[in-house]
Amino acid sequence: MSDDWTQYSKLVLSELEKHGEKLEKMSEQLGRHGEELAQLKVKAGMWGAVAGAVIGVTSYIMNKVG
Question: Alpha-carbon distance 59 to 66, whole Å?
């Protein structure tokens, strides 16, 4: 029985180590995705500002001309 328990405990520990490694990889991927999301938010904000400026300038010019 002691030998069975030893084998089982080794199996459990090896599985826990595998899961730990997988969790670390997933955590790294999640961090990268968070960085990518932040970059996309900045780009979207910049494009929104440019679009708003174009509309504002166009509206100003149309009011002065018309």
Answer: 10
